[in-house]
């Protein structure tokens, strides 16, 4: 009889060592698979009632047509009566009643001094109490050397040339005289001043007299005339 030799004795290395090393892993895998199977079983038993669909019986109601009462018969309704127009009464015609005329107002008392519409005495110069007399305000004139704001300068509309004095003509005197004039809101010259630097003593009075006769369109500011100063040059020449 032939004697057999065990595999671990025939192969002392290799497979036996692998089997010994794999036993713990095999045991662990078996435990994990068993636990997973138990969990799946428990879940299936718990969720089975929830997954089952409960079918409720359907109830139906049957109506017997023979028990329905017939509809009520139609009733003839009379049409509404037409509206009858009510005749209007003829308007009463009033009888005119004479109205007495209004009494005339009493005649006004005669005015003293009047007779038949003609004045018999001197006219009255008395001012009624309800009439207020207004005195025009005095024109405000700026003093000499004051600058006045104007939007449009005065323009001369009447120019008068000065008369050459006989004494200055005989002496052969010539020169320039600057005259400052104050022009009022009416365009008239209100004041005359001879320049202290540009003047000739023998010719000053002639220039001053001519400047007083000038007439201007007054200067304007804010669409109203204003009084202001203006300068007029007078040049005296013999030839």
Termini gap: 185 Å
Please give the radius of gyration in angstroms: 70 Å
Question: Total helix count?
Answer: 4
CATH topology of the domain at 155-236: TolA/TonB C-terminal domain
Strand content: 15-25%
Low-confidence parts, pLDDT < 50 over ≥5 residues?
113-120
Number of strands: 9
CATH architecture of the domain at 155-236: 2-Layer Sandwich
Query: Based on helices, strands and strand pairing, what is the structural class?
Result: alpha+beta
Average pLDDT across residues?
A: 77
Q: What top-tier CATH class of the domain at 155-236 fits best? A: Alpha Beta
**The CATH H-level homologous superfamily of the domain at 155-236:** TonB
Protein name: Energy transducer TonB
Subcellular location: Cell inner membrane
Region (Disordered): 106-125
GO biological process, one term: transmembrane transport
Describe this structure in words.
The protein is α+β, with helices and mostly antiparallel strands and 239 residues long. Among the domains are: 1-51; 155-236, 2-Layer Sandwich (TolA/TonB C-terminal domain), CATH 3.30.2420. It is 23% helix and 17% strand. It is built from four helices and nine strands; from the N terminus they run ααβββαββαββββ. The longest helix has 37 residues, at 15-51. The chain is elongated. Mean pLDDT is 77; it is low at 113-120. It is a single-pass membrane protein. InterPro entries: TonB, TonB-dependent_transducer, TonB/TolA_C, TonB_C.
Q: Main traits of this protein?
A:
239 residues; elongated; alpha+beta; 17% strand; TolA/TonB C-terminal domain; 23% helix; two-stranded antiparallel sheet; 3-stranded antiparallel beta sheet; 4 helices
């Amino acid at each position: 009889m032939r004697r057999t030799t065990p595999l671990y004795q025939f192969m002392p290395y290799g497979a036996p060592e692998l089997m010994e090393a794999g036993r713990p892993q095999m045991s662990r895998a078996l435990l994990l698979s068993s636990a997973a199977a138990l969990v799946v079983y428990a879940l299936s038993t718990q969720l089975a009632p929830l997954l089952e669909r409960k079918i409720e019986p359907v109830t139906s109601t049957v109506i017997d047509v023979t028990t329905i009462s017939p509809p009520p018969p139609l009733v003839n309704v009379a049409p509404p009566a037409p509206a009858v127009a009510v005749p209007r009464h003829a308007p009463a015609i009033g009888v005119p009643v004479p109205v007495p005329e209004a009494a005339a107002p009493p005649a006004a008392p005669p005015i003293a001094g009047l007779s038949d519409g003609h004045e018999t005495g001197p006219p009255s110069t008395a001012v009624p109490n309800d009439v207020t007399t207004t005195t025009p305000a005095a024109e405000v004139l700026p003093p000499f050397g004051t600058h006045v704001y104007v939007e449009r300068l005065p323009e001369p509309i009447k120019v008068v040339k000065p008369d050459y004095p006989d004494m200055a003509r005989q002496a052969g005197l010539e020169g320039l005289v600057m005259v400052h004039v104050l022009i009022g809101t009416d365009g008239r010259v209100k004041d005359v001043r001879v320049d202290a630097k540009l003047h000739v003593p023998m010719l000053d009075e002639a220039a001053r007299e001519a400047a007083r006769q000038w007439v201007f369109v007054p200067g304007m500011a804010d669409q109203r005339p204003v009084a202001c100063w203006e300068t007029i040059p007078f040049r005296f020449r013999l030839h």
